[in-house]
Records
---
Amino acid sequence: MAEYHDLIVVGGGPAGLAAACAAWEKGVKDILILERDKELGGILNQCIHNGFGLTYFKEELTGPEYAGRFIRMLYDTGVTVRTDTMVLDISPDRRVQAVNTHDGFLDLKAGAIVLAMGCRERTRGAIGIPGDRPAGVLTAGAAQRYLNIEGYMVGKRVVILGSGDIGLIMARRMTLEGAKVLACVEVMPYSGGLNRNIVQCLNDFDIPLYLSHTITDIVGKHGRVEKVVVSAVDENRAPIPGTEMEFDCDTVLLSVGLIPENELSRTAGIEISPRTNGPVVFENMETSLPGVFAAGNVVHVHDLVDFVTAESQRAGRAAADYLAGRSVSGEADLELVCGDRVNYTVPRKLRLANIDKAVGVFFRVNKVMEAGTIRVTDATGAEVAAFRREHLAPGEMEQIQLPKVLLEKTAGPITISVEEAKEE
Amino acid sequence: ELSSKEKAALVAENPAYGRVICRCETITKGEILDALHGPIPPVSIDGVKRRCNPGMGRCQGGFCGPRVQEIIARELSIPQQQVPQDKAGSQILVGRTKEKGGA
């Protein structure tokens, strides 16, 4: 006999916390959060740097502080939490199987589910860095866990591959703990991280950033990394012979991308987008499975936790509406398509009945642009809306609001594109 | 590979089988402890990997690595810093944070 809950939230990080609180506020009184770690907070617990919550709280909090605000909000609700609990399977009819040492094997059934599993890091094997396999090659997030949660140093002389935010943050973190960070190496001609991190983590510590370069060999024949070879790459990201530089180091930190963790989504039969590696979602964050919603990094990798919170609150409220029979399931009225310079949009499908006044659409551009105009066009190519923005970059997620009154008059599919502003 | 009923019975008997350490391959603490207490025990993180699989999945040990390291340290009664990745000389940790002296 399965244990029933109105809403089961898989993951107690910022996404799961915000979704649970929002669902509670909208009237759901039987909510269970399942979290695999021993505490709530998710990845924020190891992000001890500040900069979280600039938008949401108008303050610069550290990761644990931001998570702490939502955990305290949770105390004022009747939401139940099971930590140290690993979800093993989710079936299409919303049965959830989980396990922990205390309760043993859990057989649960949910009225609605919010998926908030976050993401994992891309590995050395996935990008095929040649060379030996000594100790000292780890992902930046794993290093961050060792330093910030367990209190261990992972190396003394460091080369970082990837200028995404995690790599930049760890460049500073390792330096502050006495390591020498020799270089940050980035294969693209631009950095994937937030501009403020380039300044505060590399420039402020005189750590050189090598754009359009990559690590082409890792050498370590006696157990530990001894040196790496870094080469310049051409416009096809192929190494250019003759440009090799050697760095004597004992540690390589990899910050080469995050991948949404959707194994559970896949086994449940949820449609996954190949562009985001996350579930295809509707305007209210519902997946292709009715009653199953998703939010946060499991849908698409975010840069700002404030956006995660907004998106997760949307999912929590939608789950509440679903349980109360107030929302519409089923097919989309409008689909969003990526035009020039746009990599993906979340959501991808819209049902007008579930939109209140406007729907927020998150997307990423595929090029660094000083300024540009975001164009929203209908099936005929006629412009429906335009938004002017400055400083667009792949590493900084954008958001636009599409008003319902506009969508009601528009024939889909709707294309979202960005036109780069010409030099004056 | 066990059925739900078999899993429930196993965890009830030994809670260590209820703590999932490697989430990609669903390897529990119980299985890791079994490997470490077998007749020819592994003595490194990669050794444990070869014996019962934690670290072979999609995150390649990013999530379970620190936890496996901690379990090995405790079971072999050595400081965590001494646990090797694979062969001798392949330690992952070089010290504690907040210690004096840099590179």
---
Amino acid sequence: MSEQDKRDRLEQRLRQDAAGLRYPPTPNFAGQVEQGAKTAWPLRWAVGVALILIASLAVQPVRAALFDFLQVGGVAIEVPEEDTSTSLVSQLTVYALKDLTNPTSLMAVRTEANFPIRLPAWPLDAGVPDAVYLQTVTGENQFAILVWLDSPQGEIDFALYILGPGVAITKGAPLTLEELQVNGHQAAYVQGGHLLVVQGFHESGVLVAGPALIWEGGDGLTYRLESNRPLAELVRIAESIEFSE
Amino acid sequence: MTDADIVARALKGEEDAWAELVAEHQQAMFRLAYLKLGDADEAEDATQDALIRAHRYLRRYDPSRPLRPWLLAIVSRVAANHRRSAGRYWAAMQRWLAEREVLGPPTPARKAPASIDEGLWRAVQQLAEVDQDVLYLRYYLDLSVADCAQALEVAEGTIKSRTSRALERLLALLESDYPEWIEG
């Protein structure tokens, strides 16, 4: 049987099985509405909200996500609705540097990655990263992780994620989410442990401790900078990347 | 009367209009939530949550486009959030730590619903969520490519490539793990 025949048969079987699938009965959501569980807004409130929405769009970066998520480049960040400080985070093991795979070198990643690898020009003494990793999600979709330590055997000073074209990340609701700009581009700063999921062949889930600055670069790539440094320093590091070689 | 007309009435405050929209689309929304969550109670919660959000943000709906994909996009996102509940996080993280890969394990398999080809269903459950989503919308809910694109908020070309990729992976899984399905 040819590959096309196999696929055609598979599609046919999927449709047959879908038609035969016995779903549980659909609850009567419409009936709940008719009983008054939901009422539409009076027109004056709708107009008021519309004006507020228009005003907010005029002064803030536009949210590409429908709601619940703030989209910054290739990263969708779930907007926290409540204080999650007592959440499941304390139960889980934090994603650590030693758990990263595919270590490589700066020279190699600049050859292997299908997107430019730019380093921050600040701090002045940062130099080249102490560790570099290149992760392939699917096909040509890659992201690089560059790590700077505060000493050769020390803790991580900052880790820079550079997401290549096509890489999408979803972040579970962090403790806090702040919108800002980096070099005039949309950015977000998150704090608090949260789940980070790279969309790809496998849906990965890693718990990151945060905090992190995420922004859309002028080169069309999405960057993520994870560090305990103050936000002002993270923005300075981030803004120094765009103009470096 | 089109969905856009009914939405316009709902935005003017006509409560019957919103109930009419819910009645028209609740089954598709609930079924997608059920496919993603595998549990009727969770699917009901996710659908209810999605309907509340849809009502709250109804003004953002683009009346020049079909309503159902817009609603399915909402329930898909809500169901994915429900899926990432504390218990599921814990189970997923345990598996990831055991495997120690950056690109972690596929979504957990669920009990097969009645009257379905169990081998095929199990294989679908082993796929990643991004593959499952496109298969659910294209084959289980029988959406067009255009409607799928709107529901998943991607381009039509992306739907075609995702579908092709999902089918390839499903076929590979069936050949390796369920050879009897291939031979049958």
---
Amino acid sequence: MKVFIKGGYQTKFGELWQNSLEDLVFESLVGALKDSGLSIKNIDAIYIANMLYSETDNQNHLSAVISEMLNINIPIIRVESACASGGVAINQACNFLKTNQYKNVLVIGAEKMTDLSGQDISYYLMSAASKEERKSKITFAGLYALIAQKYLHDFKISGKELSEIAIKNHFHASLNKKAHFPFEITYQDYLKSPNIASPLKLFDCSPISDGACALVLSNIKQKRGIEIASSQIASDCISLSSRKSICEFKSTKIASKNALKESGLTLKDIDFVEVHDCFTIAEIIALEDIGFYKKGQGFLSSKKKEGYIYGKLPVNTSGGLKACGHPVSATGIKQVFEIFNQLKGRCKKRQLKNASIGLSQNIGGTGGTAVVNIIKKS
Amino acid sequence: MNSNSINIVEYWRDSKKIHKLLGLKGKIVSFTKISSSDKDGRNSSFFVVLAKLENKRSLMLEVVDESKDIKINDNVKIVLRRTVNSTKKKEDPIIYGLKFKK
């Protein structure tokens, strides 16, 4: 049983104070239905990915909120796996469709983060970390700073290599109207940016963004469709202190290995990737964990320009989390939507030539959950 | 709820385990200096260290005395310190917990 992407829609990512979460959900699902040529009557189930609404607005039971919004009674399931919520929702929707019980599923990821102060949102985001980590008063930037500090020490690279990730992703975002920060930055901009958690500076960190993205998935055969060739999840300890190494994510290694096996593809078949660059160091580690670069060499993707849209393995053509933005539960779905748009030839100024297969990697927390999806032209 | 809110039952439960870790020594695996500001815009910074302890377990704690230079592989020791900076009510408990000291 194959699963195809029929259509999708991404809202603008950014500070969207005029929009509530419900507004963003509605905009994205209407856009996805229009893009797929279906109506809500054709949809058999909805997966809604969201991490923070229960904390920020005391609203659980999002499934019933959507039922009321659309006046429907189909199965609606909320998915939460921290920042991997979107990727996990796609995985669960694929599994649901493979049971052949239903034909079309809507997958929506939405997050409202900028209505509150940065301090409050940082506190709520730490619910993706362990109790021990929260008690240490560390922030999420701090957790990735620990990873970066260790990585820079062990592999003898500097902040300049980290800056090149941010510069590349901002370049890609400058070609994406839906990005939170659709502009380029320079190394000087990076150097002048404030320290957040050493060695990470402001431009090493993805922003707090509002936004939503939706996809329509179907198991109805399509000629020349875009197929989700594989979708795999793996998990790992929530605490960094429980892991043998903090410079690799076991969950990504297992999920990517299983995704390649499920799809019958090899790394050489992958033309481009969307990886989870919540912080610049996370992109480097993702490329190494998936196997595109040897340990300690993931920074070469940006340094040697291999990760640019004109390079040999484009990385984060959307602008990544760093520059496109990171409304946490929308991210995993946006990654797959970016790959879908590239394969459909809809990316205009950032369009890749001759791409047929893309891979997305979406993680929760510091790699406690990892989802890898491989999408290809059928 | 914010980071200064304490669940007193949880605090009481966790306080029974503190003696198992107090005094243990370890080596720094990694560290970071967090630059933060409170709601009134006052800037502050503090260090958090991830260290591997002599009992083979790793632990992440705030560091006492941030003025000292911190490097990977430095030695640290677990000490008991006040962990919540301020309490607004006279009847609030004074909260202690573990920190690393170089």
---
Amino acid sequence: MTDDRLDLPQGTLDLLILKAISLRPEHGWAISERIHAVSRATLSIPQGSLYPALHRLERRGWIKAEWGASDNNRRAKFYELTRSGRRQLEAEADAWEKLTAAVSLVMEMT
Amino acid sequence: MLSELLSDVRYRLRALFQRGALERELSDELHFHVEREAEKNVRLGMTPEEAMRRARVSFGGVERFKEESRDARGLSALEAVGQDLRYAFRTLRASPGFTAAVVLTLGLGIGSNAAMFGIVDRLLFRPPPYLRQPATAHRIYLTTSYRQKDYTDSSMEYTRYLDLTRWTRSFSATAAWHLPRVAVGVGQDAREMLIGTVSASFFGFFDIHPVIGRFFTAAEDQVPKGTPVAVLSHAFWQSRYGGRGDVLGTTLPIGALTYSIIGVAPSGFVGVGDGAPPVAFVPITSYAGTATWTKDQTDYYTAYHWGWMQMLGRRKPEVSVEAASADLANAFVRSYAAQSALSPQGAPVTVARPRAVLAPVQHARGPNESTVAKLATWVTGVAAIVLIIACANVANLLLARALKRRREIALRLALGVSRLRLLSQLLTESIVLAALGGALGLIIARFGGTVLRALFLPADAGSGSILDLRTIAFAAVVALLAGILTGLAPVLQARRADLASALKTGARDGTYHQSRTRSGLLVLQGALSVVLLIGAGLFVRSLQNVEQTRLGYDVDPVLYVDPTLRGVDLSNDERAALGKRLLEAANAIPGVETATRAVTVPFWTSMSTDLFVAGIDSVRKLGTFQLQSSSPEYFATIGTRILRGRGLEAGDRKGAPLVAVVSEAMAKTLWPGKDAIGQCFKVDADSLPCTTVVGIAEGIKQRSLSDDPGLQYYLSIEQFHPEDMALFVRMRGDAADQAETVRRLLQPVMPGGSYLAVTSMREIIDPQTQSWRLGATMFVVFGGLALVLAAIGLYSVIAYNVAQRRQELGVRIALGAQAADVLRLVVGEGVRFAVAGILIGGAIAFLAGRWIGPLLFAQSPHDPLVFGAVTGVLLAVAVAASVIPARRASQVDPNVALRAD
């Protein structure tokens, strides 16, 4: 367990989770693994933040949960995007683009 | 946005109702995560145990995540309350004795308060049913000055009512009403019932519609005689006519007339509600136009002889109470001037100073509130005191229990429970106890309330349960307050909990700490009990004084017979003959010792007329002399003693010299220093021949039990008002049981539809003593209750202290103390509490004596005998309450006590 973890800016965790399940429903552990993998092991979500975030997102109706069988045939809780969740993902992704572009511009200032 | 909100609400609802399932799901989910992490670690090459350990460690404390997740679910507050309630019920069920004691104590306190609230609510707060806008509806009181004293009364003449209605501008409506007992029915079936004689405008004051038929109109309420139509009350319609719809148009004899029934009032309508509800409503002019108290039928609306009815006024909302009172006072002055024009010998306007008072409709809130209403207010205060004592008791019990749980509380605090949660949990316990106490209290109030209502509102008895929404709401509020109040004590103590010392094993120190709070509460209980018991003692002695007062006549064996003519018109001679026939018939009844004719009855009626005595220019200035006119057997029948000279004799008939028997006080007032026997005075007019005094009688209580001046005189009925037909009958044995027999046997003597009413003297006198009997009963009951609660409180405190001091007592006994020494030690503690309570309570009672004085009868509120007796009682109770734990203390085995805990 490396300690080279980047501190995630606030609100970014929601964006990551929404994106992670945008292709297909995943359970909590899989979400965390995928983000870790896709980010080339840079981003590691502390489990203490993951589940509260998932419940928060569920409360706001952006993701919905359903129990199903995992790939090793064990019972797990799968999360998937709802329609309003998809809309929220688009909005947040858009905002993220704008933000990072602006920050980059400032950083290129000499 | 909206969809988010909906989703949130749905989520919360699901979390509320399916909490258990959600918890399990979360648990499963987290475990799954840990397992997968462990599997990953195994694939990375770790051993299974190492893999699992790492997985768990990386995950951190599962419980903390659960907690955070739960917090994210946003339900903690509600869950916390639910948890507190469950915990409270569990702990209370675990100690049933404690719970029972507390619930019972609180139940008694809350119940007595709820019951008294119900009474006071009906007496003072609640307006009559259906009354429109009670704030603008007023009962009119008129004030006149007589000999520098103001007399305020709501009774007035019908003429006055017409004057005031005509000459004021501040009222949108006025109404007249009077509630006489009138015979309903014919012959043997005739029964006296309460009839509401009202003006047609009366119904407009209320928001009512007739159930069937209609109310009478102003056209049917015209002077001089009105129209004989009647509106039945709902209850009477149900009981007498079975609620039949065909009752309209049938007739009903009421008083001297036969009335035609035109409608039925709605259920629960009782008019102004001054006591028992009337059975029917008739136009007031129909009643006044045929009343037999005056020969001239137009008198009642043209002359100002006698105030008999009461007036309601609907104040216009834009007019203030002061302006309306002033307007009314002006009208009264004009009316008084008209009265003076008719009878110039009355006091002039400048002396009488007529004024008016607008009061609420309820009688108990007017300027003449009865002693009973005042007493009801006092008793409410007393009930509140009992509640405080009960709360103090419960607080003490809760404190003792909190002390026992000191270790548990300290442990929980050390484990990280927030203080707020702990306090809220303790408070929840108290509130649950108070809620249970409140429920029990409502049951007690239901039954106790029936008894109380019979005592305070006898006319109201049977009109529905005393428990209604207002009383229940009141009980709920009281229970909540009690819960918070009693819960405060252990909560405050928990806040100061010293963790370290509490966690030490064995809650024993070298000495025991006398908790100041608990001692204070105990002394408070004692003091309040003392106050109540002193009140009880004062009222009981008042009652004794009342019952031992020499009335001047006998009460138990005497009946009063009041004949009323109906449907026949007799001349004065014929009436006199009827009176004689009634007397003969009465003497013939078995069980009758002796009977007499008479005109007035103590407390109910009185007669007085002008007297003229040589050498005194105005007899009226010396006082009001009450007159009784009777046949010779009067003194023997009613039991008034002749002190000197003779009573009335058969020889004192018409044409014989006029004679009189005067009371002792009258003799001393009119002929001071001289022997009254043989003196002459003129009755009615100065021109008439002399009436000679032939005997002196004892004074009687005619108008008031406490301060009657005793100025009475007796004339022979043959010489004065021989047409009066009333009788007094003296029975062998108790008269009340034989009243119906006497009535039945005398009824045949009455002509036509006439009837008799027979009342026992006890029924006439009892209401006069009611307020003292009430006060005595209430104070004794509540005082006794307070004493019991205080004794329980003292017992529990002493017992607890003894348990705390077991070690110390063991040491003492081991060092040679005898059982008697230990007894003295413990009982001494109890006595010290009692003494403190007596001193404080006695001081309070002494100071409060000023206000309770007027309610007593011939009894000083600072009576040392009562104070001394109460002191003795409290000391005795304190000793008794301390003795049991003291004996247990003296039997402590030093070996057991000294062993390590």
